[in-house]
Amino acid sequence: MFSNKLKIICLLLTSFMIAGTLSSCSSSKSVNSNNKKADKVEISFWHNWATGPAGDSIKKSVLDFNNSHPNIVVKPLFVATDGGDSITSKLLTAVAGGNPPEVMLASRYGVAEYMDALTLVTDLAKKDNITKDMFYPWAWDEASYEGKLLGLPYDGTSRALYYNKDQFKEVGLDPENPPKTIAELTDAAIKLTKKDGNKVTRFGLIPWFGEGWLYTWGWAFGGEFLNESTGQVTANDPKIVQALTWMTGLGKQLGAQNVSSFVSSAGTNANDPFISGQLSMEITGNWTMASIKQYNPSLNYGVTNIPTPDGTNFNTFVGGRVLIIPKGIKGEKLDAAWTFIKWMCTTKEGQSLKKITGEFPAMPSITKEIYANDKMQQKFIDVLPNGKNRPVILAGNMMWDQLSKAPDLIMNGKGTPQSVLDQITKDINNEIAKKKAQAK
Amino acid sequence: MLQNMSRDIHNTRQKKKICKGSIEKHQRKYGYIFALPWIIGILLFYAYPLLSSIYYSFTNYNVISKVSWTGLENYEGLLKDPVFWTSITNTIVYALMSVPTSVLMGISLALLLNIPIKAQGIFRTIFFLPTLVPVVATSIIWQWLLNPQFGIVNFVLSKVGIAGPPWLGSPYWSKPSLVLMAQWAIGNMVIIYLAGLQDISQDYYEAADLDGANWFQKAMCITLPLLSPVIFFNMIMSIINTLQVFTLPYTLTYGTGNPANSLMFYSMYLYNNAFAYMKMGYASAMAWILFIIIITITLFVFRSSTKWVFYQDEN
């Protein structure tokens, strides 16, 4: 019935299909373990910085490390994020499937929530004399949970108040004397806002735009989000309630409806309203300087520390990354991975490469060194030692989501600052208690 | 002799039965073997995760930590969770707004696109094109179109003297904005309606013309009843899809459901719980509750369909 030719074709097709199916199955032994070269240890390094200065810094870091460590080969692998900044779900899947990468670059915030997927480095750090005082306090704190070190802190990002000097001059404010207190800031914001009938054509300040998270202002007002000794979240700290009241009060004064609608479809980079001159002041990070240079180099702007109620004790919200070793990495791969992250996070060579992205190393000594001649960055660096990091808790992502939504809820009349923050505090503490109970 | 003959015939018949039986068995065996890859696939990648998620909904599963049985804790927690109830309300309100709108618009558009004019093909293509735009691109485009300060929609409205609403910036206008965006991409449904319209025999229309019916009477008495199976299909698919709406609101609000949780839909909350808050067990419980809700509504619609769906081959 079948001709010989047809039989051969069918056989070939079937064998291709079977081969294809088999090759797509991964074995729990990573491919690297089949490496015949016994003298080189290969480790894979997951990151999510593909392009631009960030991508370049990864390439250079890996190149420099591989050159200076001839018996280790680091293979960087770009992994796309699943929303926001995290590649957590991919890491979890890899750990559960038994073939995780040896090193991963992760956002420091929220690492505690998946610490079961990590090889903790507390003992390794102790053995190599890597201690808290080598780093900025926020770097070490955000990478630790209950005395355990989850990974080595890699870098930090800092925020400040950007302001448009030309627009300051236009309304009679002194461009060389930017606001230092909240009262001055409020005053400037009202003066700088331009209305055209009922529509606002220029906003002086939108407190929660850019990096004006409740965290930022809560800390500026002197509040604390976590009671270290009890481990309880204190989002309803009176100073934080004060901060939220100020944020939403100013928002309402400038026209609540308009503010929400402005924010929900404004963009970043080229669409950033500060860069296009539609927003006179913005709280944002040091990375925006590069964006301004690229999209509107003629913008005449200045940078000052985030105002506080009394004009002293400036601080900032610090974010940043950590290098972690997933669970399941052992033996010489673990040694190689540890060598790599030590080099990246605690040596001059590794940390100096942060200059490529314009972000800050986690080590104060190196930060001061590489940015010694950069005037623009000084405002960001001055305030780094007093930088604040988000609390390391088991419900970090949930707390972030709820606090980010708080101004919006209040602007839409769904509660007062006190009631909203009380509810959030209760919910997050319940969640933490639940998670702790389940982990036993 | 006759006895022998009948015995022979009986034996031959038996043999034929046996032979036929074994050929069928033989062919059946090969049938199963050829279907085996698909069966393995569906068991491994569909049935196993499905059944696991029922199990995990009774635990505190989060992929990597030790799994421990928590019984009905997830379900109880859900019933007490205000965001859960908000998300259910939002999803149902959205479905109530979206399904009738899309059915009405779909049918009207299909009827219009069925008019035999020269540019019929061009118009059909134009109305189908938006479905080809990726969802993320759709959300970015519409975010700018509906921007209250600088968007084109409010600009055009202001030229006509209407003060445009804040669209995505207001908790009351955000869901209608979403419905608007979803209508832009109803090309899929329109194609199916058009196919259904072709099925209606011209004889009915000719008879109606002889009786002197106008276009409205023709539409109500011929087109709609004969189109009802297709409407029924589209309605069910629409209900199932809108109750699971995820991509568009997620990309619009970056998963936050702003403003004021008005765009926090059920699937979004499920996703956040599963992948951001590491509560897969909780999310699995949400998934099964959604399943029960959708099945109930679908069964209800099926039940009611006997009253208004008219299949042409029945009498």
Structure write-up:
The complex is a heterodimer of chains A (440) and B (315). Chain A is built from 17 helices and 16 strands. Chain A has helices at 4-24, 52-68, 88-97, 122-127, 137-142, 165-170, 182-192, 214-220, 238-253, 256-264, 288-295, 331-346, 348-352, 364-370, 375-382, 396-411, 417-439, and strands spanning 41-47, 72-78, 103-107, 144-145, 148-149, 152-153, 155-156, 159-164, 194-196, 199-205, 226-227, 232-233, 279-285, 301-304, 321-324, 360-361. In chain A, the strands form 5 sheets. A 5-stranded mixed sheet of chain A has the order 2-1-3-15-6. In chain A, strands 9-10-13-8-14 form a 5-stranded mixed sheet. In chain A, strands 4-5 form a two-stranded antiparallel sheet. In chain A, strand 9 (194-196) and strand 10 form a beta hairpin. In chain A, helix 9 crosses helix 16 (396-411) and helix 16 (396-411) runs antiparallel to helix 17. Chain B starts with a helix and ends in a 7-residue tail after the last helix. Chain B has helices at residues 2-56, 73-80, 82-113, 120-128, 135-145, 152-159, 174-184, 187-198, 202-211, 215-243, 247-253, 266-276, 280-308. Helix content of chain B is 74%, strand content 0%. Chain B has 2 domains: 1-56; 73-308, Orthogonal Bundle (MetI-like fold), CATH 1.10.3720. Chain B is flat, with a radius of gyration of 28 Å. The longest helix of chain B is centred in the first third of the chain and has 55 residues, at 2-56. By secondary structure, chain B is mainly alpha-helical. In chain B, helix 2 crosses helix 13 (280-308). At the A-B interface, helix 3, helix 10, helix 16 and helix 17 of A face helix 12 of B.
